[in-house]
Structure formats: structure tokens, C-alpha cells
């Protein structure tokens, strides 16, 4: 009865999905080797998950496979086996004195801009706020004018009667 409760507890599902903690994994592996019912239930669950994944799978467009193949081929380092006589001879690049190039790699997600552009962005931001203020002001004025026109129309109707 304890084995059945353990199977129904949901730990097998968390293990199959890879969300089980290290302690749960150790416990499951121990119980799997000790109780064949748990091992059988785990195999059935893995097969069911595989069937679900196969039924829900979408076939990517054919061009995607070509792109993946090209990227993998670009990543594979091929040995340089061309004989010396077929290699393209290039003259060594001469650097001017005082010129130095430094490769820079950055993992930052922020964009750095020149200080002058900061003022431009600040000015655009301030102008945007000013235009927003004018838009709200003229909207309210227009609404007030529309209300005044409606009042005048009702007065004209009353005077005509």
C-alpha cells in the first residue's frame, strides 16, 4: 500500500520532468531498485511522456534544418590539411607605429552612447512631456468647448419654442 501511495504522490512525474530535488532523486533511485512496481510505473510514465511529446511535436520548415546544419558545420573545427603549395600566400600586415587594436568582449546588456547623444535623448524626452501636456490641455479645452456648444444648442432650441 505504501508503494502505491508513493507512486501516486507525483514524485515520479517531477523526476521525469527533471524538477525533482537531489534528495528526491536519490530516494527514487533507491526505491526503484528495491521495488519493481516503482520501476515499472516509472518506465510507463516515461513512455507516456514520450508518446505525448511525439504527438505534440511540430515539424519545422525544411530551411531550418539547412540553417542548423550550416551552423553546426561552422562550429566544427576542420583541420588545415591543404598542402603548402595550394595555400594562398599573403603578405604580413604591417601596422603603423602607435596603432594598437584590442579585442573587446562584453557581456553587458546595456547600450553605451556618446555623452552628446545623452543630451539629445534628454531633450527629446522633455519635449515629449511638453507635447503630452499640450495634448492634454487642448483635449480638455475641446471637451469644454463641445459641452458649451451643447449648452448653446439647448438654449437656442428653448428660445425657438
Describe this structure in words.
With 161 residues, the protein is an all-alpha fold. Among the domains are: 61 residues, no CATH class; 45 residues. Helix content is 67%, strand content 0%. The chain has six helices and no strands. Helix 1 runs parallel beside helix 4 and helix 3 crosses helix 4. The longest helix has 46 residues. The chain is flat. The termini are far apart. 2% of the residues are buried.
The count of β-strands is 0
Unreliable spans: none
Helix content: 55-70%
- The whole-angstrom Rg is 36 Å
The fraction of residues in strands falls at under 5%
Number of H- or I-type helical stretches:
6
Structural class designation: mainly alpha
Order of helices and strands: HHHHHH
Termini separation comes to: 92 Å
Outline: flat
- Main β sheet profile: none
Mean model confidence by pLDDT: 83
What would a concise description of this structure say?
The protein has 161 residues and is an all-alpha fold. The chain is 67% helix and 0% strand.
Task: Offer a few descriptive terms.
161 residues, mainly alpha, flat, 0% strand, 67% helix
Topology diagram in text:
Layout: H1 2-8, H2 11-17, H3 22-34, H4 36-56, H5 62-75, H6 115-160
